[in-house]
């Protein structure tokens, strides 16, 4: 980014933060639709996320979800400025207090620095999810409900590729749908990679842009999907057992989730990630976006097919 643009951003941030100057402004890695910057105002560190110019949409309800999650005791970056409908920076934005820690799953699972964290992480993740799921969804107007079986059935049909394992998994999921205990706010991508971890364990849950209303077990099932264990030996985020996760969740809610329901959502999550892999590879193969990364993700389709065969072989058909 050009120096002049940096200066313009510093000036805009100074106005937003009501301070004379912004220092230590640095660009961090970001996704396709957002820019992420870290900066200092006064003696405190903050993180800015803003929508890339030309991106359709914005932050929509994410800042409000962050705010209510923080109030409920979920470890999240504290929202400082909700700029979803503000214009000082030219595009929608939000500013949160910076949180220190590591997000790279390989380091969290293997480095000695995080050995104590690994012993606490499963319990902390269960408690954090339970606190989120007890928040009244009415506190965040605009969240939408999402039937993921219907969504991914449609996506697979639209891709037009034969994938018998995913088709069988979708039929199994439809036949064995559990009765939903409740509808609540779910994070939607609750897994290692979206967790900030320090030496004591969970420092913050990040990346709330696809939060929606759904079944609470969606988050726990996604956390247990094999792909998100990153080679760890245990089912819950690679570091803990199902029982540890469910016991931690019950310590907040007073009700222990049914392991069979958790397993249903783990199967759905495995199917979902497999179909996402097909979609991302197709984005490259059709020429929409040429990317070695997207092409390589296509090889992971068969990993999820294998995992689904294994999971489905252990339950009713």
TrEMBL record:
Protein name: Unannotated protein
Domain called Aminoglycoside phosphotransferase: residue spans: 25-243
Ranges that cross the membrane: none
């Amino acid at each position: 980014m050009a120096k002049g643009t940096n200066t313009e951003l510093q000036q805009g941030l100074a106005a937003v933060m009501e301070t004379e100057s912004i220092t230590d402004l640095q660009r961090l890695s970001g996704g396709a639709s957002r820019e992420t910057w870290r900066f200092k105002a006064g003696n405190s560190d903050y993180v800015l996320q803003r929508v890339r110019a030309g991106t359709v949409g914005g932050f929509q309800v994410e800042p409000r979800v962050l705010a209510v999650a923080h109030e409920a005791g979920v470890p999240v970056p504290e929202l400082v400025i909700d700029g979803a409908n503000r214009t000082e920076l030219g595009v929608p934005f939000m500013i949160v207090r910076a949180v220190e820690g590591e997000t790279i799953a390989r380091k969290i699972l293997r480095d000695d620095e995080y050995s104590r964290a690994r012993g606490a992480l499963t319990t902390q993740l269960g408690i954090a999810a339970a606190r989120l799921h007890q928040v009244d969804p009415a506190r965040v107007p605009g969240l939408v409900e999402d039937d993921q079986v219907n969504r991914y059935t449609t996506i697979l049909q639209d891709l037009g590729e034969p994938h018998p394992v995913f088709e069988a998994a979708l039929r199994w999921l439809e036949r064995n749908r559990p009765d939903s205990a409740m509808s609540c706010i779910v994070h939607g991508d609750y897994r290692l990679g979206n967790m900030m971890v320090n030496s004591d364990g969970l420092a913050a849950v990040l990346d709330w842009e696809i939060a929606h209303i759904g079944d609470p077990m969606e988050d726990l099932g996604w956390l247990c999907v094999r792909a998100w264990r990153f080679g760890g030996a245990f089912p819950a985020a690679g570091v803990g057992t199902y029982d540890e996760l469910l016991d931690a969740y019950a310590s907040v809610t007073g009700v222990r989730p049914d392991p069979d329901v958790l397993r249903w959502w783990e199967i759905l999550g495995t199917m979902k990630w497999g179909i996402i892999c097909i979609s991302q590879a197709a984005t490259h193969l059709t020429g929409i976006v040429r990317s070695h990364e997207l092409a390589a993700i296509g090889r992971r389709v068969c990993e999820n097919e294998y995992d689904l065969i294994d999971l489905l072989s252990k339950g009713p058909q």
